[in-house]
């Protein structure tokens, strides 16, 4: 920068800027340069250059802060099996529904934005364990974060709040449809008018809660397959969870990939007769029992 009858303090600040190692140090030096620079017509280009550099550094610092913030907000739990995420705007009743489905007791009051982070839980339906995720209230600010998480889930349960703006709720439902994500849209029974072709429910009605559990299970399009080693009793406590349309090969791969070189497989349930030997491409049904011989 050329000398424009500036005092020694300005050049000291200029040297400080040249020696600065961090963005914060550079920003502090530039602000000092701007304060100490002469303010007359001949210094207009100098002031514009300093202002431009301040703007660029501020932008870079904000970018770094946002990246750090996103890392802090990173979901810190492991996906386990089939995952269902509950989403909604503030006071939609997400946590209340999550608590009753997952048998938890997280804070759930009319206080807006009470849920601060993604919270995992387990919903048990018959003998199937389904991972549920409670989410922070959906806003324009966290839309990208919530939607990014939803891409990893097999099903989204979206709760409508008629007291909140419909635009953001509509945008999220449209986003789910564009991305081909399965969804269930629910709304408390206190408001029986329909806006998004949603289903009404009451958190205090056991029949409604059981209906929601059944709908979640049916919407996931999954089947339960049981296993037994040769000449041993079957294990009906922990089924293998597969997608509808999956085959014997898919089931064996879930048991252990080393078993894929099996000699034979027998199936009880959907076959013409009990214990029928089948090929690896045989399509399994809900409740089938599989025996693998290696």
Structure summary:
Helix content is 37%, strand content 21%. The chain has 294 residues and is of the alpha/beta class. α1 (8-19) runs antiparallel to α2 (23-36) and α2 runs antiparallel to α3 (44-72).
Report on the architecture of this protein.
- By secondary structure, this protein is α/β, with parallel strands linked by helices.
- Helix content is 37%, strand content 21%.
- The chain has a six-stranded mixed β-sheet with strand order 2-3-1-4-5-6, with helices on both faces. A five-stranded mixed β-sheet has the order 8-7-11-9-10.
- Helix 1 packs antiparallel against helix 2 and helix 2 packs antiparallel against helix 3.
- The longest helix has 29 residues.
- The mean pLDDT is 86.
**Computed CA radius of gyration, to the nearest angstrom:** 30 Å
The CATH homologous superfamily of the largest domain is named P-loop containing nucleotide triphosphate hydrolases
Mean pLDDT metric: 86
- Number of discrete helical segments: 8
Looking at CATH, which topology of the largest domain would you report?
A: Rossmann fold
Task: Kindly state the number of beta strands.
Answer: 11
CATH hierarchy: architecture of the largest domain:
3-Layer(aba) Sandwich
- What string, H for helix and E for strand, traces the elements in order? HHHEHEEHEHEEHEEHEEE
| Unreliable stretches | none
